[in-house]
Amino acid sequence: MTRKLGLVLALLITAVAVFTTFPRKADLHSFDPDGMAQLETAMWRDYYEKHYPKLFYHLYESSRREFGFSPLTSLGIALSAAQAAMAFQPTRSRLEADRALPYLVTYYGLLRSAAPASFDVEEIARRELDWWQARREAIGPREYGLTIAAVAALTYGKAADNPNILQFGIGRAEAMAYRDARGEGITEKDWTTIERQLKAAYQRLKAGVASQP
Fold it and tell me: What does the CA dihedral 97, 99, 102, 104 come to, rounded to 10 degrees?
């Protein structure tokens, strides 16, 4: 009886290990624009309302559902992204904002395995942090939207002047600027508008990454 129980437990542990670590066909191209818009809207809400467990869950969902990473890798992606957000949120200068950089390096290092081409993890992490900080300064969304587009172009191995990727970056920045302008008075209707803006932006990204470099 003891041997049988031990065998069952061993098989169960093996099955769990295989499920959590078995390589999936993770692919950064595989996202659904509607799904990404819904999840990103939820993540923005989580961030500003400081609901960090929900932020972690939605980050995990985006990695698993939209890109097809394994559960274990999705946990790593979600954890590093959530840590970056939590490290950045209380900062008040570019120097302080660098606290988030190590977590962004880890985040993009994990994403790279599903990217169509290799990229410089440190460079792309720093550019990501650049647009986070630019939002807090006297820089308009169309300007920092170009940095968002540059991050996407590097991630997908596309040309920096890809028109759909440029429009994605600007559209995503304008959705963020819309949220910032509403401040603490933001309403459910506003969040619906933001989700619609993000949906249009991610449709642009989907078209951009499917096109030739």
Answer: -40
Asked if 182 and 36 count as a contact pair (C-beta separation under 8 A), the reply is: no
If you ran DSSP here, which 8-state letter would residue 25 be given?
-
Residue 57 near residue 74 (C-beta atoms within 8 A): no
Residue/partner pairs of 88-97 with CB below 8 Å, 24 or more apart: 88/129, 88/132, 89/47, 89/50, 94/133, 97/129, 97/132, 97/133
53/210 Cα distance (integer angstroms):
33
Q: Rg for the chain (alpha carbons), in Å? A: 19
pTM comes to 0.88
Query: Mean pLDDT of successive 10-residue segments in the chain (213 residues)?
Result: 39 36 77 98 96 96 97 97 97 96 98 95 98 93 97 96 97 97 96 98 97 55
Q: Three-state DSSP class for 82?
A: helix
Which residue range forms the structural domain that includes residue 155?
2-210
- Token code pair at residue 75: 């946990």
Total domains present in the chain: 1
pLDDT tens-digit series, residues 183-204: 999 999 999 999 999 999 999 9
